[in-house]
Amino acid sequence: MKTAATASSNGWRWSFLSPQLSSSISPGKATLPLPIKLRLHPYRVKNGVVASGDAKRANLSASRTQRVKLQVYDATSDGNGGQPYHISQFLSHPSGIKAILNTRALEKIEFLDTSAYRCTLPKLALFNFEATPVLDLRVIPTEEDCTVELFSCKFKGSEVLERQNEHFSATMINHITWDTNISEPFLEVDVKLNLSLEVYTRPFILLPISAVERPGNVVMQALVDRLVPLLLQQLVEDYDKWVQLQKQLIN
Question: InterPro entries per the record (predicted)?
Fold first, then answer.
């Protein structure tokens, strides 16, 4: 069994392929091989499930920092009374929050409190099951930066599928910064993603933990490498649209 993660400008699509995957990465798809070498371990197993006290845990991670040129909008010369259109204002505005959360790719978004949002993604197929990913995100914009934190990740579906939520956890920090006081203003995104998986079923309990972590890290890194440029592009485009709208409202 091999796993492929596909990212697009409108969201994420996941698929599970067998038996072979290409190791190439195209603009719309990231697919990677999953080599397996069996090694027996003396775990207590019943019905293919290892006892919880003997379960191993795989820790996966990926990160990427990238910046793009940022247009600086100076309203002092366009007759709008010096109204500023700074990127910090956009990221604090509801339009900026929607751009950060990419609401166009969501099935539903709920407000949990003044800075937290529950984002329901479209259903994805996992073997013979359908799962709905639900992410709880906190967005904290300031005049200096903007931080997006993932503090809960769950899958909704059948009872069997939802029990898997007990066996993994995920964290993500997306730190957005900028500098508009230099000759080449920029917007920068720094994303760090971590995933912890409990390995408790055959055949994975027979593998060294590195056989799970190494290909898992490659898949996650390919996904982050694809999504970060898309996020930056979307933020810049939505910022420009927001500025043009503000100017229209003033005029």
Answer: DUF1997
Compute and round to an integer the Cα radius of gyration of the chain.
21
Identify the helix (H) or strand (E) that includes residue 222: helix 210-250
In order of 97, 219, 223, the CA distances from 61 in angstroms are 25, 10, 11
Lowest mean pLDDT of 61-75, 142-156, 196-210, name the range.
Answer: 196-210
Alpha carbon 57 to its chain centroid, in Å, reads 21
* 190 pLDDT higher than 50: yes
Distance of CA 175 to the CA centre of its chain: 13
Residue whose pair of structure tokens reads 């379960």 in the numeric block: 55
Q: Could you give the C-alpha distances from 181 to 153, 168, 177, 184, 226, in angstroms and in order? A: 37, 43, 13, 8, 29
C-alpha–C-alpha distance, residues 186 and 92, integer Å: 18
Q: What is the pLDDT of residue 161?
A: 76
CB 129 within 8 A of CB 161: yes
CA distance 166 to 169: 8
- Quick check: 147 and 175 in contact, CB under 8 A? yes
Measured distance CA(197)–CA(140) in Å, rounded: 28
How does DSSP classify residue 19?
S
